[in-house]
Structure formats: structure tokens, C-alpha cells
Design goal:
Length: about 180
Amino acid sequence: MSGTGRASEGTPAIATVSDLYAEALALETEAAERYADLADQMETHNNREVAALFRKLAEIEARHAEALRARAGGPLSGAGGAARQRGDRSETAPFDDAHYLMTPAHALRLALASEERAEAFFRELADTGIDAEVRRLAQAFMAEEREHIELLRVWLSKYPAPPSGWADDPDPPVISE
Ligand code: ZN
């Protein structure tokens, strides 16, 4: 909007295809790690069903990152982490939203929100990118994120909405410091 060359909000500093690959790879790698962390966290709390879902999401994102790495061909230069530098992690499920009693529906909604952020990130780039090839590729990445979103929606349709009072624990964990 300011057009001064400084990346303003929502317009990441991604000028080249290589920047875009680096950024997409950073996003997917981070998402994979985050989902794996969430899976660990849920396992710690014996929330096996949700742990399994996060584990599966972690695998999907890790495979996606692998594919990106292969497709990128050469070493990735540039601005991996533009989104992180903006302080807005496009495809990350924030830990703060994770609750040890969360149901599969919660977990999936959390994941859905982060996939939607990733989709929006690529969509904006597809619309406003400076370079035609960057726009084309951003379009392709956006389509992949849409597949993730679709998958999550299918999963979500299988799980009932969490009952009210889902966070009430009759036997809460003892917190010792
Ligand atoms: Zn994704």
C-alpha cells in the first residue's frame, strides 16, 4: 500500500521464485514440526486420538516439504522465513490454542486455521506478486494448501463438535514446579 519497497503487512518480501520456494519450504517444515510437537504434547496427556491426527498432519506436511525441496532443484537461497520475519507464522498452529483435553474436532480446527492462513498467504502472493513466475507458482502452492484444507474439512465432518464443558477435568493434572 505504501509502495516504498518495504514489505508492509501482508506483502512479504518475496521477489523471486527461489524466495518463494524458500518461503514455502520454511512454512511447511515449520508446520510439520509444530504438528509433531502437538502430537507429542497430546501423547503426554494420553490424548491418543488427537495425537494420532496431529501425527498424520505432521507426516503430510513433511512429505510436502520433501516434494518442495525436490521440485526446487538447486539449493535454496534467499528469504526463507519472510513470513516469520513479519512475526506472523502463516502455517503454524499456535501452541497457546492447544489444550490437553482438546477433542479431535478442536485439533482439526486449529490445523484448519493454520492451513487457511497458508492458503491466504499464497493467494495474496498469487494476486499481487511482482514477478509473473512467482505469481504462477504461488497459485500452485495455494492449490496445494486448498487440498490440505479439503482434507481437514473431510476429517472434521467425521468428528462431532466438542460438547460444552469439554475442558472440565474431574481429575486435573497436578502442576508441580
Ligand atoms: Zn499445508
